[in-house]
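Final report, closing paragraph on structural work. Over the funding period we assembled a curated collection of sequence-structure pairs, and we close with a single example.
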Amino acid sequence: MSRPVSRVLTLLELLQSGGVRTVAELAGRLGVGERTVRRYVDHLVDLDVPVESVRGRYGGYRLAPGHRMPPLMLSDDEALAVLLGLVAGRRTGITAAAGTAGETAAAKVRRVLPERLRHRLDAVLDSLTFTAAPAGSAAPEAAVLLPVADAVRHHRPLAIRYTGGRGGSGERTVYPYGLVAHAGRWYVTGRDLSAGADRTFRLDRIDGARVLPGTFEPPPGPGPAERVLTALATAPYRHEVTVRVRGTAEEIRALLPGSVAVVADADGGGEGEGEGWCRVEIRAERLDWLPGLLASLDRPFVVERPDELRGLVADLAGRLMDAARGTPPPRG
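Its predicted structure, as stored:
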């Protein structure tokens, strides 16, 4: 491929990425003068590619809105990135998987690829295995995700029809602060005007979303991700657990997922006056998994509540001592 033709195709790729590109920017990316850029644009127009000229201080060139460009021009690395992204998205549940959208998108990409590249990518996908089981599908519908994202980006109020975890449903008006993807689910966090409090909503439980007129100013404070993790860690469960752990809050946060525990510095702390301790709060439906979690921290800790957890920790300690001595467990 001659160098001018290669640069014309590169220009097309830059315009396909969206937005208005100034002549100076295109000249810099292509390594040519501005007059040459205009000549390349003329070549594209001669090929019936709808390149629009945008006037003004920030003017330049762009493709006509809504135009679909055949053929899809992807390098080997770009095609691999697209297809692996679709596969990974389906496995983790993060893609909007209404029906077979992910599969049909991958099929369309494959159809427009050169045969040589298509066969090589098929070899990768056919030979690829995963160590983790596929996540349950909790991805939102595009009809929900897109208006929610638009409201977040432009600080617009949002009307949603929401079904809670206990089955109750109803209309909510929300000031959405941000979208968060966590553990295969999508969340929107914001101010629920109906309840007069900050709330976190799962997008797969939203039946409909509509952007409302007006704007709002997001409050200062934690970012959307921190808000969602805190909401998950403080959700109402059967048991409220409080434990003091030796170490700074930063050290303990690195050991415990933010969606499981709320960690804060504590004044003093039981055993070891003068040494750094922090307070860990956990909400749990069951307590049987907590002794192992606390032991895995490999740090001194003191259970403040509940009393039942102290007994479970003692039982685990006894079993570990028996295992260390080589004592067989009792039959029964």
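The CA atoms of residues 73 and 245 lie 55 Å apart. The radius of gyration is 28 Å. We thank the funder for supporting this effort.
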